[in-house]
Design brief:
Length: 129
């Protein structure tokens, strides 16, 4: 099955050997997304809400570049550095998924760069090409 690399316009170079997203058989897989600017600097230091919004906007751009919408999201994998930020993450998250909610899980973990408070990876089913 052929796959298509999905890279939104203006994306920075990934920190490691991965693509922002891949699309195969109508499914979009969005890599773990951190609150980075295009130069891989952490943005909105100390602000879990702003970081979550930034991450979800990047995810949205990957899904839209692949031809889908946030309504097509079926699964989110959420990582937070501190449970104290869980409510803030959920507050912003709910605005991106106002209707039927995708499946998800959330775990506390260390993230690749100090200052990053949240990381989200996503799966979206946008239909077969």
């Amino acid at each position: 099955m052929p796959k298509e690399i999905v890279t939104p316009a203006g994306s920075g170079k990934p920190l490691a050997p991965y693509s922002p997203g891949t699309k195969a058989d109508g499914i979009v897989y969005v890599s773990g997304t951190l609150p980075f600017d295009k130069d891989n600097n952490v943005v909105h230091l100390g602000d879990a809400k702003a970081q979550t919004r930034h991450v979800l906007e990047i995810i949205k751009s990957v899904i839209e570049t692949a031809g889908g919408t946030m309504d097509d999201v079926t699964m989110n994998h959420i990582f937070v550095t501190d449970w104290a930020n869980y409510a803030a993450v959920n507050e912003v998250y709910a605005t991106y998924f106002p209707g039927d909610k995708p499946a998800r899980y959330c775990v506390q973990a260390g993230l690749v760069k100090p200052g990053a408070l949240v990381e989200i990876a996503t799966v979206a089913h946008i239909g077969k090409p």
